[in-house]
């Protein structure tokens, strides 16, 4: 089984210096690639000089996470893609448990490793932790992290399991599956496009798994800081788009109507916290969503599996 470890880069020379060595050192079973989203720093020159065995795919502009991977992966031949953020430190033998799972489980098409905090390696990391789920209102959460509360890793999530979504910070997917579903939805640009892809794939009956034997460490916030209003805009807009696109018809109105109210409350909270830019980002996110409703409706899958919605607490494990 041929695997490619693929890092998407945009002006990340500093991150490449810190994190690329571990990827190269511990990925002997794979070919390592960097897809460069038209960086204006010295990222490309650095890779060519310091890591001549790392293969470069250079794009003509910054297409974001979704578009960057969609275009770059077209030029990479592999059976399995390991999509790895540029701020991920990998560990020895991190690929072997994942490859073993893919080989023995044909219905498993996406895998996430255990993702822990690079700054505090005893704790899980916000973006992915021990595998992702959605609550009734469509808010993402993880085993090992609910809201901003992150758990210490005490072995409580050391069993492999099916999850609802895998983090884009370290995201393994079969090439055949990625191609079949035409990759990430580029209208998302960045944030939650990996959840959307996992959801679309679940409509076909395939599985997304968490494999705890594979472990990586994530710095987090390297592309867009959590204080960025643009990040707030993308998260709120993309989440609404994802819900309209993938929810079964009987849940579209109650869930999205509830979200409009909750998002309004979130905007008020931002204002009370002295963050008017984030309040405005929530408002813009809603108008951005309304504008895209016809486009999103056209993308709804023909078949939506309802087994995830048989209780009021949909999406719960």
- Give the uncertain stretches in residue-range form: 310-317
The rough form would be described as globular
CATH class of the largest domain: Alpha Beta
Number of helices: 9
Count the E strands.
Answer: 13
Order of helices and strands: EHEHEHEEHEEEEEEEHHEHHH
- CATH-scheme architecture of the largest domain: Alpha-Beta Complex
- The CATH homologous superfamily of the largest domain corresponds to Spore Coat Polysaccharide Biosynthesis Protein SpsA, Chain A
Report the span from N to C terminus: 30 Å
Oligomer: single chain
Global structural class: alpha/beta
Radius of gyration: 19 Å
Approximate helicity band: 25-40%
Mean pLDDT: 93
What summary fits the major beta sheet?
9 strands, mixed
Residue fraction in strands: 15-25%
- How many domains? The number is 2
The third-level CATH topology of the largest domain is Spore Coat Polysaccharide Biosynthesis Protein SpsA, Chain A
Report on the structure:
This protein has nine helices and 13 strands. It folds into two domains: 3-218, Spore Coat Polysaccharide Biosynthesis Protein SpsA, Chain A (Alpha-Beta Complex), CATH 3.90.550; 229-309. It has helices at residues 13-25, 43-50, 64-73, 96-104, 175-180, 193-202, 229-246, 249-272, 276-298; strands at residues 3-9, 30-36, 55-58, 80-84, 88-90, 108-117, 132-134, 140-142, 145-146, 149-150, 161-163, 170-174, 207-218.
Quick recap:
The chain contains nine helices and 13 strands.
């Amino acid at each position: 089984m041929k695997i490619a470890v693929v890092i998407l880069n945009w002006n990340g020379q500093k991150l490449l210096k810190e994190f690329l060595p571990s990827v190269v050192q511990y990925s002997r079973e794979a070919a390592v690639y960097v897809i460069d989203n038209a960086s204006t720093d010295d990222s490309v020159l650095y890779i060519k000089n310091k890591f001549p065995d790392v293969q470069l795919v250079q794009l003509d502009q910054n297409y974001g996470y979704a578009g960057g991977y969609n275009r770059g992966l077209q030029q990479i031949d592999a059976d399995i893609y390991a999509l790895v953020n540029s701020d991920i430190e990998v560990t020895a033998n991190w690929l072997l448990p994942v490859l073993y799972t893919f080989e023995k489980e044909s219905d498993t098409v996406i895998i996430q490793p255990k993702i822990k905090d690079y700054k505090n390696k005893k704790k899980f990391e916000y973006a992915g932790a021990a595998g992702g789920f959605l609550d009734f209102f469509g808010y993402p959460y993880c085993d090992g992290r609910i809201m901003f509360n992150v758990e210490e890793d005490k072995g409580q999530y050391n069993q492999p399991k099916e999850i609802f979504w895998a983090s884009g910070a370290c995201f393994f997917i079969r090439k055949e599956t990625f191609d079949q579903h035409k990759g990430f939805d580029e209208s998302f640009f960045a944030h939650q496009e990996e959840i959307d892809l996992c959801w679309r794939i679940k409509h076909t009956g395939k599985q997304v798994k968490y494999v705890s034997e594979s472990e990586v460490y994530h710095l987090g916030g390297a592309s867009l800081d959590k204080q960025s209003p643009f990040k707030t805009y993308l998260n709120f807009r993309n989440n609404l788009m994802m819900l309209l696109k993938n929810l079964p018809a009987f849940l579209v109105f109650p869930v999205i109507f509830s979200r409009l109210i909750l998002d309004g409350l979130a905007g008020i909270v931002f204002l009370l916290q002295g963050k008017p830019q984030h309040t405005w980002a929530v408002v813009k996110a809603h108008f951005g969503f309304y504008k895209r409703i016809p486009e999103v409706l056209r993308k709804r899958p023909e078949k939506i599996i309802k087994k995830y919605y048989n209780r009021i607490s949909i999406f719960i494990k």
